[in-house]
Amino acid sequence: MAKKTVTIDPVTRIEGHGKITFQLDEQGRVTRARFHVTDFRGFEKFCEHRPFWEMPDITSRICGICPVSHMLASAKAGDAILGVHVPPAAHKLRRLIHWAQLVQSHALSFFHLSAPDLLLGMESDPQERNILGLVAKYPGVAKDGIRLRQVGQEIIRVLGGKSVHPSWAVPGGVQSPLKPEKVDSLQALVPEALEIVDRTLDLYREKIEAFSTDLEHYGDFPSLYMGLVTPDGGLEHYDGVLRVMDAGGKILEKGARPETYRNIFSEEVESWSYLKFPYYKSLGPEKGLYRVGPLARLNVCDRAGTPRADRALEEFGRWKKDGRPVSGSFHMHEARLIEILFSLEKIAETLSDPHITDTHVRSHAGVNGRAGVGVIEAPRGTLFHDYLVDEGGLVQEVNLVVASGHNNLAMNRTILQIAQAFGNGTEITEGFLNRMEHGIRIYDPCLSCSTHVVGRHGLKMEFLGPSGDLLRSFELL
Amino acid sequence: MALVTLTIDNRKVSAEEGQNLLQVIREQGIDMPTLCHLDGLSERGGCRLCVVEEEGSSKLLASCVTAVRENMRVTTGSDRLFRYRRMLVELLFAERNHVCSVCVMNRRCELQSLALRFGVDHLRYDPLYPRLSTDVSHEKYALDHNRCVLCARCVRVCDEVEGVHTLDMMGRGVSCRVIADLNQPWATSRTCTNCGKCVQVCPTGAMYIKETFSAHGEKRPDLPKRIRDGREKHTWGG
Ligand code: SF4
Ligand code: SF4
Ligand code: FES
Distance between CA A337 and CA A118 in Å, rounded? Predict the structure, then answer.
């Protein structure tokens, strides 16, 4: 049988199917696992020669789940090209919409996508192991999840006008101020949402007991962690400086300016995947493996900076082994809940700022710089938009480093761990499939293929023999 | 002034000799689709959306460039005309790159509303996907060739209303482009007065005020007529 390859025309398609290949040795043990995904370079090509002020709009269409993150990273790159001082109210409004996005995106990941596995069990019937199954068995939890997501979406809708693709943040600021009469109604959403997170955290802490074997095989390995922090080390999602921490908790980069990321990271390109493989430069591709996202962010910061989140963060510290940063990717679930908590507290704080309704929300300028880097902590991790424009502002080069790219090496490491712990040659059991799926879902990869993984449809698995011959190919339909 | 009598959609109509057919059709309250025609500008007869059938002839007439004639019998709407118009709109889409979702004129674009009107929800022709540039050199305005339908409204308003003839067309067929002066970056034009009339009459997002957000473009296609009326008849309608 010929080896199957997935070909995706990178220009016309930005989504595709995920594929995992397992390399087996003579004894049938998995020695290598790779998660293949489609790329973003197609999208980068599409952006070339477009005016940079269109970029927030174009790039927010990369992903239907986190359009706000792309819009903001792009607007920030645009700010740098304009070289202007963005009005303070615009920064606050951008932060507000970003936290709302974190709430809705994390809620989707936790409740809709992962809770069925967590509450109904990895071995449970796949027909029922979904949000509908959750509604049947845990109606309260399902309702909470739906409500929490609504809260995030409602804030995005009020600010951005549309909940899915708001073309609202622009280079130099935002399009429209927040109307004073909207403040109270948004503020009123927060208390209920906080209660939801509190009870979900309690439930999660109770349920996690049952997953002790899973915990250590779901991407529990030493790695570096990267994320933004505030200049004084607090949890940060919108601005701040880059921090890199090693597996022992030593800080390798204390506060690098985000636009210098090219000095800190390198990218490898592999023939078998369209996705780039970034690593921490000074340690090389092997040792420089790092993770980004909720877990990494909680690891690298000194504190959250809000009362409830700080308490939850302290409790999260129970997963540290010998004082080292939390290394199990499974704990991303809890990390997401803590970040929702933090976002909600920040939303409340920002809404009570008397200047939040200032009407000066945009600065105007021409092209004052040829290069612009915009960085943001998207729900799934650090997101870079790096543009080079010509004198009129037409984009010449684009580099987008997305969270799933950063986590690429870590995802591969995770599925290898799972395969080694739960796999048995080319045999495919329900439990094995579920765990493999969940292993990827933990990272909540921000590719449209994540929805395929979620629905299982289209996820391919290939088992290769010692000499690279295809032993078995399997597609989840 | 001599009057002529003709029949439009089975209705007897009288018109002034030399009047153009489109005008008479519209006076009858008939909603005739057009793209290159704009009140206040000379006729071009380029888009062919205003075609009508004339009894006794298999040829379709572009009503905006046809003078009324005594006893002519025309039909303004038929299945055949609908099919042709839809085909014309499809061909316009296929010729350049129209990504409505990120366009400044999304939801306010004349091309887009024609597509809606004629039920164009897919293309039956392979799009050409040409690699086209955007001229962003002008301080205030941008010209994105990807979205240009070559209606020449900009060219005519610049010539006939502003009176400077900065813009023109170069090349033929698919290589036809709107150019400024001697095909140079707009910003380097010595003749452009920066008046922006071209932007205001462009039916699509091809010409727009820089930094306009997607779906936030607003045009003033009524300007040429208003300016003309003000200038010639001293009527200052708003
Ligand atoms: S801005 Fe005015 S003068 Fe310049 S090209 Fe347009 S219509 Fe002509
Ligand atoms: S730029 Fe606009 S007005 Fe000018 S020819 Fe093209 S579509 Fe028509
Ligand atoms: S309107 Fe008559 S040909 Fe364009």
Answer: 14
